[in-house]
Amino acid sequence: MQESFLHQIGQALRSRREELGMTQEEAAQRLGMHRTYYSSIERGLKDVRIKTLRRICEKLDVRMRTVVGKAEQ
Amino acid sequence: MQESFLHQIGQALRSRREELGMTQEEAAQRLGMHRTYYSSIERGLKDVRIKTLRRICEKLDVRMRTVVGKAEQ
């Protein structure tokens, strides 16, 4: 259940990034993260901290409540 | 700015807990956390992981999107 919540968060981030026409490479670069690390977040494999999720949302120009809301659906 | 975001998250958790008439002690107990640790989350001093915030929201019977939404206002 919580596993799946991280997956939903990751999915929401991925679809927002794709909406922007941004590659994982570009997103990772903006965040100063390694692409494989960023990719593992989108795949729901990383239980990141609040500030990290917030920073990702900022770089993807989306509100965190929107991402969390999609994950909770 | 990100510091203050954690403070806003903490405030939102605190007001929800108070709405329930729950003490920090009770909330911490339900979460299996030490009271001082739980207290430091409400004071915005801990950058907890997504699953931890989700678990706190579940114990406080509130949606995480609501807590995040209040913090983003």
Regarding quaternary structure, what we see is homodimer
Tell me the radius of gyration of chain A. 11 Å
- Please outline the major beta sheet of chain A: none
- The geometry of chain A reads as globular
Q: What share of residues of chain A is helical? A: over 70%
Q: How widely separated are the two ends of chain A?
A: 13 Å
> Strand tally of chain A, please?
0
Unreliable parts of chain A: none
Task: Report the β-strand fraction of chain A as a percent range.
Answer: under 5%
What is the number of helices of chain A?
A: 5
Summarize the helices and strands and which ones pair or pack.
Two copies of one chain form a homodimer.
Chain A: H1 2-19, H2 24-31, H3 35-42, H4 50-59, H5 64-72
Structural write-up:
Two copies of one chain form a homodimer. Chain A has 73 residues and is mostly helical. Chain A is 73% helix and 0% strand. Chain A is built from five helices and no strands. The mean pLDDT of chain A is 95. Chain A binds chain B through residues 2, 5-6, 9, 47-51, 53-55, 63-65, 68-69, 72, and chain B through 2, 5-6, 9, 47-51, 53-55, 63-65, 68-69, 72.
What are the main properties of this structure?
homodimer; 73 residues; 5 helices
